[in-house]
Amino acid sequence: MRSEAKKRLIFALDVDCFEEAEKWVKLLHDKVGVFKVGKQLFTRCGPDVVRMIRGEGGEVFLDLKYHDISNTAAMAGVEACRLGVRMFNVHALGGPEMMRETVAKADAFCPRGEAERPLLLAVTILTSSTEETLRAVGIDRPVREMVPRLAHLAKAAGMDGVVASPQEVGLIRAACGPEFVIVTPGVRPAFASLDDQKRVTTPGDAITAGADYLVIGRPISAAADPVEAAELILAEIEEALRGRS
């Protein structure tokens, strides 16, 4: 059960240089199954940081949130496949055509069923967003309506899953079924602060609700003992998994 819990824990490498990223990977690779590489780190270090993580035995969530014309997003997805990442994402708000073409290009490069094929994820609504955020950009539907709507669009386009707040996991399960992958940022254990996240829950509650992967950064990196913090989170995930089985 501990190895299963480890697979589900994604550590957010929200750092600004290769050396710092390498330090965290070496420190946490026994506790963390996947390391998230976002825009800042990838822009600074490029594919080398992905290769470093894989060289240390870690998997990579390439969190670049592609949102562009269909061919551009799709070809970026092919390059993510070529890097050997475990998962990458696009913005569901890019629309069905963009998602369908990304899936088609990924399938052509790395067919479904092959072990090295990454999970293709669509971002629904960012966990930092609120109803007010959506209204400001002209979306007058509530978050709880937009998230399952975008998740359903992603599934229909052939995506493997979505990135969404743990608070919307139940809505996504109802819209997309039990096999659709849900990756949840905005997870905060009881011992951590909320930081800039708005729609959050604890690791145990997220797993119990049906989340498949949890993205956690500052509750580990800002802890006095990051390894101990990761261990506490693993224990909470493990307990929740037992309750689900």
Features:
245 residues; eight-stranded parallel barrel; 8 strands; 49% helix; globular
- Beta-strand share of residues: 15-25%
End-to-end Cα distance: 11 Å
Q: What is the mean pLDDT?
A: 93
**Helix/strand/pairing class, anyone?**
alpha/beta
The neighbouring-strand order within the major sheet is: 1-2-3-4-5-6-7-8
State the major sheet: 8 strands, parallel, barrel
Unreliable spans are none
- Based on DSSP secondary structure assignment, what is the total number of beta strands? 8
Report the helical percentage: 40-55%
Helix and strand element order: HEHEHHEHEHEHHEHEHEHH
The rounded Rg comes to: 17 Å
How large is the count of helical segments? 12
Shape: globular
